[in-house]
Fold these 4 entries.
Entry 1:
Amino acid sequence: MIRVMKMRKLFLSMLLSCFLVMNMNVLHAKENTQDTIAATLKSKDVIVMNRDTKEILFAKNIKKRIYPASMTKIMTAIVVIENTKHFDKIVEAVPSDTKVIRDEASIAGLLIGERMRIQDALSCMMLASGSDAAKMLARYTTGNTKDFVDLMNNKAKELHLQDTHFTNVYGKYDKQHYTTVKDMALLMDYAMENPIFQKIVASDQVKIKTNAFEERIAENFVYATFDKAKLDHSYITGAKSGSMDETGLNLASTAEKDGRRVVIVSAEAPIDEKHTNHVVDAAHLYQWYFTNYQKKIIYKKGDTVAIKGNILTPSFHVALPSDIYIEAPQGVFNAYEKTFVSTNQKMIVKPNDVVGILTIKTKNTTTTYEIISDGWHIAISVYVIATLLIILILWLIMKKRRQSKPPILITKNKQKPMKKKP
């Protein structure tokens, strides 16, 4: 009996030791996973952000001001796209467009008088990083670059880019032309929701016909840099780089794998001989993210949430159109809080009406989701119905009483004619 007890104690001790070691390893992995990847990076400023939850998974100097260089063209492109109705319209390069050569800016090599479609000019700007194409598109959109820059800054305010300001359309160095990697991540995430922008930046190359060339080729400069560094970029859905002596190598890119969407922005990587430090950093970060992070599903697609009513509106249920989740390192799930607030005040709810706000808080991020109605819902409270019925009944009773009373006859007294005095 004593021997059995000793065996049990030994077994429990071993089990407890294994449990403690496993937990220590998990905590150690959680603490050091970011330190490990940080040690491999050459970029001074980096952000990794989940595009669906907006959760920041890696942060390094994310609020430090940087000079965006040609990443500026992300904003230039989205402003052109949102102010253009017909992308087959023709734009023509004029002498002022080609003067960017004096600024040592990257160019698509447009010729004075060369004409092409707006769609093709956007490809020259985003794929070949043509500053000449950027000036041509800005001038076409607003008549001059000054008014176009105003639109860029207005868009930055609209997107709540808190520390971003532009002075030109292609990224020329200027102390008043700045952003942060956090703002740039928000901008890139927004731009990639536009199908025209997304299609352009995802292309390997575009063949363009102009009046000067039977076939002009705009090659994706970022993808070519990945190829030069012998790095896979099949998972990348869009990218724009930028470089200058004052800021080094910058890169904004997005990727998708197994339904998980992420945006990474890095800045101030040293300019190496091959000009590849920024894409090497991006490759390491994507590998780190997809390998080490996993989803924690909070609500699955199709789950319903109750939209609570008040004195005017009763409760009803809405099905969620997609998964709602947070992310954490493998084997470790961050603590989170979720808060749901019903906002509906309507008696009849239509499809796509906003009926509630879901807020999920983790250690680093607060994410807010608008809950959208999945169809028609009758939201007339029983209190309202009862009140209307009471009013209707009272009205009918009063009406019936008025009808049941006998009519009151009013007789007029006939006045006798007055006799005339003699």
Entry 2:
Amino acid sequence: MPTVKVAFQGERGAYSEASAREMFAVAAERGAAQMVVDAIPCASFDDVFAALIGRKVEYAAVPIENTLGGSIHANYDLLLRHHGAVHIVGEHSFRVRHALLAPKGTNKADIQRVMSHPQALAQCDGFIRRNGWERVPAYDTAGSAKMIAEEALRSTAAICSASAAELFGLDILESGIEDDANNFTRFLLLSRSPALPPKEVPCKTTVVFQPSTNEAGILFKALSVFALREIDLCKIESRPGRRVVDGGGAGANGAAADGSVGQADGARAAKRAKAVACRGGESSGSSAAASFEYTFYVDLLAHTSDGKVQNALRHLGEIAPFARVLGCFPAEGILVAVTDEARDAAREQRVSAAAPKRSGALRVGVIGFGNFGQFLARWFVAAGHALFAASRTDYSDAAARIGVTFFSDVSTMLSKPRASCAPRAA
């Protein structure tokens, strides 16, 4: 069997190592080529990305979120920093089972403090509080077990996997100490090259973008490009920090082969400059306001090659000067060599899936009928819904052309009897 090198953060025995091995094993069970995983430990997440970019490994497995501890923000930041150099090619949900480990012969009553990675400490918060122990954050779960074993810290216990006990010669004092049995960590598999799954495979697409300005409704407008095309979102994450681009550089006009989009628009740059001036003249991005300009990450339940996804990404490029696809990958799976039998089974499963049910005609009110309000109205009218709009500006002619009932004030629109608001014929 071929051998594949996979970088992970932590010592031998870390959950990341177990997840890396498990994701390839699960892929083989589903019809992918069987591979021997040579797991390469790294001291930090930065080192994991460096090992992948530096061609020391073929893949990297990094945690991105946990059902109890939340998102691992460091890896979101690294995905942004190295966008284009690394690509998401898979995901795997790993069941985390924590154990309390201590040097041989240690009793639970002797423990005064517990050591582990901050995420593991957070996942066992209730257990630690009940015992009244001091928390000692460490760089890794298995690394804490290694440190306790090497230094024979009899009053300190490690929270890590039970497999680390045999690896480092420790006793298991208690198992299953996490606060919630629904303790899963979602890991991403990263590669240097994007690998688009077959269209018949249920997929996710991860997109990162930075809006052009911080103005009322900008996030709503950005997410509407997906909602209006009925593209399902399953996650959204925001991170503060400096802008990646502002009118050029990595966000220059054009679309990459993997569906990435970016646009540098002079009008938006001028608009942003005006907004900056109104906030007091930020300079060189060093002000507090500049430091809290947000980057958004969204996961779409769709394939990046889908026409409506491509249109949504182009539309997003009109709102966000920086927008990139970080990866298109199988939902709950990884993309490695797949056998023909597994590909055929996936295609049959996809074809036999029932089509989603659409809701009936709606009565939709739009408050404010400028360019974006008219854009929304056109979409809803085309879908067979009844549209009503209210605005202090007279847009009655535009409303009539679209097929929208127009009101000069909101109260009149809201007081319209329901019987007179029957949906229009599709």
Entry 3:
Amino acid sequence: MAGGNILVVFLSYPLYLHYLGVELYGLWSAISIVLVFADLGNLGISNAIIKYTAEEWGRKNKTGITEYISTSFILLFIPSIIIIAFLIFARNWIPTILKLKSDYFTIAKSIIPPMGILSMCVFYTKVLMGSVMALGRVDISNYIFLAGNLIKIALTVFLLMMGFGIWALFYGALINNILLLIIYSLIIKYTFKIKVFSLNGFSIEKLKILVRFGSNMVGSQIFNMFMEPFIKISITRFISLSAVTYFDIAWRSVLHLRSFFERGLNAIMPRISELNSIKNFDSEEDIIDIHNKALKFSVFFGIPSFFFIFLFSDRLLKIWLRNNFNPAISVIFKYLLIAWGISLLFLPSYFLLMGIGKEKYCFHEALIKSGLTFLLIISLSLSGILTLNSTVISVSISIIISHLYIGYKYLRYLNISKLEN
């Protein structure tokens, strides 16, 4: 699965850059900020559904699972409509903020409103994907997601060859999410014999539980959401659209490398949620044991892999991007590789804290990371010394410090657990 994610990145960027060019792809990267902001409408449900569906599955309560999924769908319909309406009214305002040239302004104005429909599909896809993960089939969930991404690339490239331009990226993403929705629904219904959606499945009790858990995750999402758009807007306004492309290539490449390990480590959260619902000495020992095994995976496989890629990053990027390679991409890539590589050490603790209901610490992590990023970049811009390199260094420092906080909170949990037992 992880290798497939890297393959997706390896295939997509050279092809997209070939057909669109650096500036036009930079425009798509800037416009896709809308999707990042729109994810706020998810209300933290995608993480909540993993936790609570896993608990219901542990009790073999299929009705409870249907209630959680149905309640999530109905709850997410409201922010979806609000986002669609907002993007229709903001189609002139967003390109103005990005200070786009007239030709690009027209393109952005036309493609921004339909992004609301894409956001809605993404919301529902995340709910069903999380449900399959919570049912103990993280492997199936991830492989389907990978297959969908490969289909998206093939479809997008076909549309680019047909002359659809930047719209090819939109249609590829939209059709991909619709296919994923259908496939995940069929798996839940026919593999696990669980009804996916019912109007009668809406539950006020489940709604309160989802919103209670999601409130901290929404806070986390708010700060994480504003971070990437803020960085891209700053680069667009103070540097250039080409620089946005360079940042986007490095940023997404490193995040996909990180997902190589993150998707595997994320699998511990449903099991920890199940054990946490039991709440006895043995279950706490099992939770710590799961965490330690995940940490060993990060230390002995994750960190060496990142180090190896760091050593050969220049050569790998030149082979991958060929004529589209720019030295700036390599510099950004290395800084982010160090920061996100260090974060791997704290991912097991992050998912443990989320699984035991301490999601407020995940909110704090996002607050520290985004807050430091905002502070450093604003300070640099006011001082007139904001460059692409200084921007990336600021982001890297923020990522490292925020994850050190997660490590500290895990050690606190460990000490308290020992004292109680």
Entry 4:
Amino acid sequence: MQLVPAQAGVPGPGANPYHAGLGRRPNDPLVVQRVMINGMQNIKQAIERTDGRYKNQRVRLSRIPIPKSDCEVLHSLLCTNPSVVGLELLDCEIEKEHLEDLFKHMKDYHLETAQLSRLPIDDSGAALLAVALQETHIKNLDLSWNEIGKDGAVRIAHALQDSGLQHLSLAQNRIGHEAAEKICEKIGTGGTMLKSLDLSRNEIIDPGALALADVLPNSMLEEVAVRYNRLTPRGVVAICQAVAQSKIMRELALAGNQMGNPMCATAICEMMQSTKTIEFLDLSHCNLTANELPILAKGVMACPSLRRLKLSKNMYMADAAVQSFFQAIRTHAGLQEVDIAECDMVRPKTVELSKRIVRRMTSQATRTLILLVVAWTHRQRWDSGLIRKLCEALGEDPLPEPPAGPPVYVINPAVPAVPA
């Protein structure tokens, strides 16, 4: 067994299928970030050997088998070590009954964060977690990519008012719009502390969106994601109008819904003109076209708080419209990232060339780093004329033709900002 200081998520030397990350939240001064182990028993021993010197530790188990014996050790570890406040079980092979046994004893743990993704959690497991929410101090709960249906989501909804939950993700389940309406109903009645809600990929239709819109203006929600549901322009417009009335909304993700018409673009524009707090807006894969870009540009320029904008996978945004869009927003003082990956544009063929597309944009007061993410396109060709026009719009020297070779797919290449 080896204690190794390392960045979270970065494998250390000699890593094996069993691993646990012991970490901290950003403000915690001391941390054991990684423990190389041979089994669950060694996780428990490793934490106990810290002699209480480290606080806010987390146990992370990813893509490993967890038999009954290891579940028992994990239960003992969580019961006897108050320093362990985070549990992450990600895509592990674990029997449903053993997992639900852990849920039944969750009141005996000291958890503040639980990420339970890609596990055999269905409605019965969600019901047990709903009880646990009322008996524990869990603030962050991620149940994405499970098998929770309407009944399980409704049980969790009923538990919201009696818990301290602040962040909830039910993404990629099958809760449907009725359970979404019930969750919104509980948020709307007050008494919840929920700040972040992710209901992406749940086959939610417009009634669910309308229920969400009803409660947004007066709720504590700061982050909302409803990506890849079945919302029509009616639902999208309702949400945008509600966000326009919110005084605390910071992040809104509408990706993968139907909004390729001027009505939605106008609602988004009016939302950005009204809100003073929105920092991140995801409009990826929404069938946006060249007709909507001038309207969006107007909204972007009217929203000084906006920092990140995602427009990727909108395959019908023509070259000239994209060029005009960037020309229109180039003087925005705070925008840091614009993602146009997989749009109707060009395909860089080397990492270096992709990095060169990262450009600074200027304003009267500040210099802003804009990430122009230009990746795979359905045309799969290099358009030197478009690249030249983009460079001119950004005040940069033209890029050379790409060298021959296999394509490289790059999203948000990490290029440091150039000092002003």
